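tool_log.txt
---
The assistant was asked to compare two proteins side by side. It first ran the structure predictor on the initial sequence, then on the second. Raw inputs and outputs are pasted verbatim so the downstream comparison step can read them without reformatting.
(1)
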Amino acid sequence: LWLSLLAVWPEAPHVVTHVAGSGALQAWVTLKQGQPQAATVDLNWPMVAWQTDAQGPVHRLSALKGVVRADWGERLAVSFDRLSLLTETGLPWRSDWLRLERIRSADGLQATDELQAKGVDLSTLEPLARQFALPLAIQEAMQRWDVAGRVDELNAQWHWDWLQPQAPPVWRGSYRAAGQISRVAWVDHGTEQVPPGPGWRGLNVNFSLHQDGGQAQLQMERGELNLFGVLDEPRVVVDQLEGAVAWAMDEKGIQASIKSLSLATPDWHGDIQGQWRTLPGATGVQRFPGGLELK
């Protein structure tokens, strides 16, 4: 199948979306009382190209595979099964399972958003954002923070209550999430105005959290910690790390506790317990770096 689509948006006449591709495609549509309620598309395309602006660059993929399903009946949802892509430069990305869903109450005053993910590769997000010319703010954020690893499993949910739906809207929200991420890297390079911050490479995390706090089990082998702003020599090579942390947040600030953290480096081995809290009485960025007690 060869497909070419052209869309012009009335609200933004200068934006022209042009998508073209060739490959195999299968599609199914679910009907309820004669009305379409869902659609499933199975893609196997060795070539895809698109242009989001008539004056902008043409982006290309050498492969796009996966199953995409959209539901818009009683609930609004989109899912991606075994989705993978390969850029012209040979940069791959893969996700075993992704699903986004929104459920709204009949009166429209409550909504629940849910995200499910399995087997999502994080390592190539920054070069993909740069190659596909995503908004500058996203590119700058990804240049500041190196993010890598794999989302083995993630379940996250946000719940919204609109207390005043009319403009200006007033709402109250809550969230919770749980998951497992392996070989995580999070390195803060800072900016011209902001110095580098702490980070790590090679961390395995099993966590659960909500708007008031959370907890996480940590494990690392042959990784590293980057303790910028904490140690004069910020890079610490880690042979092994294992332990648990917990944190809580309220109107008084943020407090975190380290529970029996075992740490081994080429030069040192020990068990650490401690607490960290933001500066009492301070607000915003003035709360940091806070106070740390270790033993």
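(2)
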Amino acid sequence: TTLAELEAARTAMGGTASCVAQEYVDRPLLLGGYKFDLRLYVLVTSCVPLRVHIFRDGIARLCAEKYHSARTGEGFGSADGDWRFRHLTNYAINKQHPDFSVAEDGTKRRLGAVLDELASQGHDVALLWGEIQQVAVKALIAVQPTLAQAYASCRPGPDVHPFSCFELLGLDLLVDERGRPWLLEVNHSPSLACDTTLDRDLKDALLADTMLLCSFSAAEAQLLRRANRPSSGGGARARPPAAEEARPPPARRRASNTVEAPTTESRRQQLPSQQGPSALPATGFSRLTSRHGR
């Protein structure tokens, strides 16, 4: 796409519209001939230091009609139906198609079922899952300074507990024909609407685990109250407990195995599904690190 073509498109939309230009991946990985993307959830529990957790479940959203590359001559102006049902994976668009369905082989599927299908076709889903984790980490590292500044401006004071807020993000990714994930966008306020049973099962577990990971134990709350209580000496407040001391003890945390990905072999450890769709764990976060351990 040339700059002139982009300008022509902007003019067609009114001339003053604000736009985001993205590279179009015209050779996506297909499921039975259908283009799809993945919605995954990432939880940020701290900005300084940056702590990121990925939810080991998600949704695959398929186009309602089979994909045809623009290279074949069809283009986006084809009179053969609505091109959006072949090229755009947006749920809001495809749910309007008469063939839209939510099932193991439908237009909206569970992440584990999709990974199992890709594995049966010979794709290295362990490597793919590892690369997805790295995309999530790098996306957050890129905005960490901005996040840290915004967070510092909202904290009442320097003595406030460093884990006093969190952010749940929705990451949309596309996988190309070589099995490489591409980040489409990051939603800082992902929809938690439950239009289907699939949504309800997934998002109930997502929210329950988010609250579990971010909540304080009774013992921890007592430590925080004691730390912020004025001292008897001169009214000065005591220092809060160290960040690591103030986190919930390991016994009450949900399993959230740290996932490090410096090598291909270590990226094979934590998959959303390893025993088929029925065995997909419905809950659970994994702590993410970059390949450099940051």
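---
observation on (2): The chain has eight helices and seven strands. The longest strand covers residues 34-46.
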